[in-house]
Amino acid sequence: MAGAVRREGPRAPEADPKVGVDVSTNRAGNPRHRLVAVGDSLTQGFQSAAIFNTPLSYPAIVAHELGCLPDFRYPLYGGFGGLPFNLELFLRDLESRYGRTVDWWEAPLALFRARSVMDRVEDYWERGPGRTVPSTTAIMHNLAVFGWDLRDALSKSADECRKRIDVPKDNLVNQVVQNAGERAALRVLPTRPQAAGALTQLSAAAELGKDTEGTGAKHGIETLIVFLGANNALRAVTELNVVWSEDSGFDSLDDKRRFTVWQPKHFTSELRKVAAEVAAIKARHVIWCTVPHVTIAPIARGVAGKVQPGSRYYPYYTRPWIKDRDFDAGRDPKITADEARQVDEAIDEYNDAITATVRAARKNGKDWYLLETCGLMDRLASRRYAEDPQARPDWWQPYPLPSALQALSPPPNSHFLAGDGERRTDGGLFSLDGVHPTTVGYGILAQEVINVMRLAGVRFFRPDGDTLRQDPVLVDFDRLIRHDTLVNRPPGNLGSSLKALGWADEALDLFRRVFSLL
Fold first, then answer.
1. What is the spatial distance between Cα 472 and Cα 461, in angstroms, rounded to a whole number?
2. d(CA 355, CA 20)
3. DSSP assignment of 339-352, as one string?
4. 8 Å CB contact between 250 and 256
5. In sequence order, which ranges of 165-282 are alpha helices (DSSP H)?
6. Where are the beta strands (DSSP E) in 381-499?
7. CA-CA distance, 404 to 400, in Å (whole number)?
8. Which of 254-263, 376-385, 404-413, 457-466 has the lowest mean pLDDT?
């Protein structure tokens, strides 16, 4: 890869959210908007290949703990499990009709049923009630949209998304919702008055920052979260194909789809533009999240043992339902150890650039913070570090799960979710797409955000909005566990071998179709 720096080991996370620079903050008045978030699927609350559970995104969890959830605005995606295709709903539908396993004589009917479900989802969002976009004037506080990278945050608006939605086609073969990302964005970005249609994610946040009248505050936003950049590398593992960005096209909405990983110099070029827009937003505190190592996500499972003792990497990465004994490097989708290492090293450089951005802003008097989401995921990585002491870097320590999660049997980990028909037997931090967190996984991220907000002096209140909370401010994980259906009761046909997902992928090319929309 051109422009990359070969490292001796993984980047050590930045331990200090202040990156070693103290800032004096103007705390006069009460900003009208306590929490605003810009980002991609991880911030929007994506799960199991769909956006549907927005009330339990990590910003919504933080807003609940802040005591301002009733005032926290986020989009809703009712109907057929959300966009683009809800794997949990799909597996539960198959289970209700065919039980925990699909016998060979049932396979044709199951395939017909699966295509019927996909067709109904497509019809709902392209031609049915889901096609109608609610008229929105108030700007959302959660402005995240799945699939978006740095360029999308800079350039995409409601007007742009409308232009990109094709005339829907009832495709009997490729049964996925066309322009799912643009359809989702139209429920996030303001559409009225007419001039609002030109607002991007970042300029919409800037409008909220201007909302200071009558508050006595210099800033309209108290805390702004910026979590962008994962989609500048994620498709390398969702598509199992590494295609590096080129000097031409990386910053174009039309041309960038050719690439699955941005060269660090291209990422940094886009980051500078994003940072300039964020700097103009009137937010008292800004929290920048680093980019997680996408190769840790269990959608790409390492096979055939580590390449050597003490290595972070496996010779090949493929789909989690392909077992070591069945893997065929000449036939199965894959990336190699060297490709995985190069992607990780690029992300390390992304994060160096994000860290430098925060440090420079703090030196200029802005109260910006760094949240090491990359380090968080590294500490939760089961196969890379937790189960391989020889591979652990000197700085690595296991992440201490909250007591409510430790009490679960088994405690959640970063393996792909598995069950025995009655209960969860493995995984629990990642949902059924193998990329996005479960509800309790989002809770862990919310707790880390809260920790940085408390460092910044943000006050948290009880749900009444008036009773001040004392430290430590802890996420109510018992509440999240009650809402987490994957942790509580995963689909009975999931199994430990993931045969149902493997069958769906082989028969329907399901994962390629869905991930192509991200």
1. 12
2. 11
3. HHHHHHHHHHHHHH
4. yes
5. 180-185, 201-209, 235-238, 264-279
6. 418-419, 424-426
7. 11
8. 457-466
Which residues are within 8 A (CB) of 165 and not within 5 positions of it... i.e. 6 or more apart?
178, 179, 182, 183
The most distant pair of C-alpha atoms in the chain lies apart, rounded to whole Å, by 70
**Rounded distance between C-alpha atoms, residue 24 and residue 498, angstroms:** 53
Return the SS3 of 144.
coil
d(CA 298, CA 417): 9
Cα gap 354→423, rounded to integer Å: 40
CA gap 282, 285 in Å, rounded: 9
Pairing relationship of beta strands 301-303 and 316-318 according to DSSP bridges: antiparallel
The residues near 224 (Cβ < 8 Å, ≥ 6 apart) are 36, 37, 38, 205, 209, 278, 281, 283, 285, 286, 287
Please tell me the distance from the alpha carbon of residue 321 to that of residue 327, in angstroms, as a whole number.
10
**Kindly report the CA angle at 301 between 297 and 307, in degrees rounded to 5?**
115
AA letter at 475: V
pLDDT at 168: 59
Secondary element (H or E) of residue 89 = helix 87-98
Q: Which of 359, 283, 250 is nearest to 38 (CA)?
A: 283
CB 245 within 8 A of CB 263: yes
Residues 451 and 448: their CA atoms lie apart, in Å, by 5
Cα(481)–Cα(407) distance, rounded to whole angstroms?
11
- Give the length of the chain: 518
pLDDT in tens, 63-110: 999 999 999 999 999 888 999 999 999 999 999 988 888 776 787 888
Contact 148, 226 (CB under 8 A): no
The structure tokens listed for 361 are 């802003």
CA atoms within 13 A on the CB side of 241: 10
Cα gap 88→492, rounded to integer Å: 11
Residue 500: pLDDT above 50?
A: yes
Distance of CA 57 to the CA centre of its chain: 10
131: DSSP letter: G
Residue for token pair 């290595």:
311
Q: Give per-residue pLDDT as tens, 122-144.
A: 999 999 999 988 887 899 999 99
Alpha-carbon separation of residue 331 from 235, 250, 297, 305, 348 (angstroms):
20, 30, 22, 19, 31
Contact 508, 115 (CB under 8 A): yes
> Residue 294 in contact with residue 230, Cβ under 8 Å?
yes
Specify whether the CB–CB gap between 442 and 56 falls below 8 A. Answer: yes
Structure-token match 């809402």, residue found = 483
Task: Return the residue matching tokens 């066309």.
Answer: 178
The average confidence (pLDDT) of the chain is 93
How far apart CA 346 and CA 230 sit, in angstroms, is 11
